[in-house]
Amino acid sequence: MKLRAQISYYKAWRGRKHDHTLIRGLPEQSFRVLPSYFHMLEKLNPGTVILIEVGGESRFKYLFLAFGVAIRGFRYMRKVVGIDGTFLKVGSENKDAWTWFLTQLKEVIGDTNELALISDRAPSIKKAISTIFEKAHHGACAWHVAQNIRNKFKCANIMGSYWSTVNAYRCEDFTGYMIEISNRYPRVVEYLENEVGFEKWSQCHYPGLSREFELRPRFVQSNGQHTSQLNPVTYHVKGGELEGVVDIFNKTCTCKEFDIDKLPCVHAVAAAHHAQVRVYSLVSPYYTKEYYVVTYSETIYPIGSRSQWDVPNEIVARIVLPREVKDKKRGRPKTSRFPSVGECRKQKNHCGKCGAYGHYK
User: Fold this and answer.
1) Which residues pair with 350 in a beta bridge?
2) Are 138 and 196 in contact (CB under 8 A)?
3) Residue 86: which pLDDT band, with cuts at 50, 70 and 90?
4) How far are the Cα atoms of 81, 116, 211, 224 from residue 136, in angstroms, in the given order?
5) 98: CB partners within 8 A, 6+ apart
6) DSSP E strands: which ranges in the chain?
7) Helix, strand or coil for residue 205?
8) CA pair distance 201, 141, nearest whole angstrom
9) In a 3-state reduction of DSSP, which class is residue 234?
10) Number of H helices, E strands in the chain
11) Maximum distance among all Cα pairs of the chain, rounded to whole angstroms
């Protein structure tokens, strides 16, 4: 109305689409450049792995990209990969897409017992991981499991007990919290044990994953602990609510915090002081400054303008066309992502009288 012009919504949408075409070009033009673009990316960034999968009529299907610096840096990180499939919705191709992607990922990062893959509980992801990664552990995202509980059992008031079970270090503590939940919602416990599996989301049942904790508070808490030496590498530490037996050689403690966090627990700190061992020598190298610096020490280089590219003719000649797009549905285009499995969307209350949000009437 500022320009004193009245047009329909559809005409405004077509004008916006035309402007985008003038600025960005046609999809066919952009996809035509992909092989040359990725060739230069690989050339200027050694070790980079890029794969383009095309389908019938040379139409784009899948893309896998892993920068060489990221591949090399991953060697100095704890082996955890988070997978989110909320933007990958391709109908019947979903299973094939995840199988293809995870196959390429395995070639880059390998498959070891130390590796953990965390995702929502989408069947296509679960099936692909179990087929391709035989040694790695597949865990369920604890947040998504919580959303499933909210949706299926309508019991948001037990979320505190649920998160206590997630973060419990010892199975004894885990069992205690599960009994609390079972007394009120036995079906929730049955769901967590049989349908999801404790080893998928519980910290104490899978000690390969944990959050990173600060070490400094444990120095303070270790004061006043009574330590006695059992053998050259094992110490019995008492004091506070829980005592522990620490093995400073194998870096373990019966409280399980040392085992899971890969950082000395209160008992391990006390044992180190008693043995006159430097506490930081017991810390996993993944937490050290040296590993952090090496992880991010390399550079990702830009490819420059197209006039500077040096691309072989066979790559320039490769044809990649965009995917076929179905006719646009009526109405405004969707802008929000697809929710993950079990994820609930909060609905805003809408007043039927005044039209405002936040209340009904």
Assistant:
1) 357
2) no
3) low
4) 11, 6, 19, 41
5) 85, 88, 124, 125, 127, 128
6) 49-54, 60-66, 80-83, 116-119, 137-140, 226-231, 234-238, 244-247, 252-253
7) coil
8) 7
9) strand
10) 15, 9
11) 89
Residue 40 tokens, joined: 């230069």
Element (H, E) at 22: helix 9-24
pLDDT at 295: 94
Higher pLDDT, 299 or 127: 299
Tokens at 238, concatenated: 């008492």
Q: Are 209 and 201 in contact (CB under 8 A)?
A: no
Q: 237 near 227, Cβ under 8 Å? A: yes
pTM of the predicted model as reported, rounded to 2 decimal places: 0.75
- In three-state secondary structure terms, 39 is helix
The answer on pLDDT for 90 being more than 60 is no
Q: How confident is the model at residue 211 (pLDDT cuts 50, 70, 90)?
A: very low
